[in-house]
Amino acid sequence: MYNFEEYFEAATVAEALDLLVDHPDLTVIAGGTDVLIKMHHGQLAKASLLSIRGIQSLQGIQQLEDGTILIGPLTTFTQVINDPVIQGQIPVLAEAAASMGGPQIRNVATIGGNICNGATSADSAPTLLALNARLKLQSRQGERVVPIQEFYLGPGKVDLKPGELLTAITIVPADYQGYGGRYIKFSMRKAMDIATLGVAVLCRLREGNILADVRIGLGVAGPTPRRCPEAEAYARGKAVTPETMKTIGRLAVKSTRARTSWRASKEYREHLVAELTRRALRAAISRAGGEGIA
Ligand SMILES: Cc1cc2nc3c(=O)[nH]c(=O)nc-3n(C[C@H](O)[C@H](O)[C@H](O)COP(=O)(O)OP(=O)(O)OC[C@H]3O[C@@H](n4cnc5c(N)ncnc54)[C@H](O)[C@@H]3O)c2cc1C
To answer: Closest ligand 1 atom, CA of 123?
Structure first.
């Protein structure tokens, strides 16, 4: 049983934004896989809901003329996995999407909901962070674009102002072209489990074995998903060697604020950050065309 007060459905963004002005207490619902669980557990008792699921313009993925990839926030995880643009241009995002939940959840859960819930364990977040994704937020007052790194404010807290909707996720060509990537999710079970740690690494090479750029996104290594600036700065310009990769993994730990939970101790999470960053980097280098790296 779901205990809600009122239920509205919007067919267009304009309609949704008007409803959010007229009814400021509305809770937006997309796939509902977070919202309905919260209602079920009494955290959102007597909420009034605004369903945006029927807004066609917020669905699907396209590559714009300048190469920018535009992901509609209502795109489901299954659609992300199967989309030819994602498979061809940023397969690491399909890899991350495939690690999420199980088939039924992936058919319903949206990528926008995964970002807006602000969870540090959100499986799309480390990869979108490493891709420097930008978020378009619209309200009746207008629109703004926020880098995803600045969107996360605290556990479950994002920079979404009253009356705002996430209406697009964009990734510009300079942030994905020429990069290889790998997402590794470490969890207790192989499916239907929340990450104990999530690591996404993107990497671009020059001259075959020099790290031109490395970007590392981590989930569950702190209260919010995060990048690893120290490890990334160290990596730039270094030759690929087992020692370099190990050092980058160790430096990634410096950007974490891991804590002990029933899933894993702080020390174990830090160990995972160092080791999985190294492994993800190794695979990303190989996918970026690195020679002699299995
Ligand atoms: C059984 C189960 C397993 C799961 N496994 C995983 C997993 O392995 N990995 C993982 O990351 N997550 C997992 N989840 C969590 C959940 O499925 C995801 O976070 C999902 O992506 C949420 O998307 P949704 O469309 O269902 O969001 P909703 O529940 O509809 O919304 C989530 C939040 O985002 C807000 N919101 C949604 N869309 C917008 C928008 N466009 N603009 C503004 N606000 C918006 C809502 O108001 C709400 O606060 C699981 C959930 C369940 C029930």
So the answer is: 11
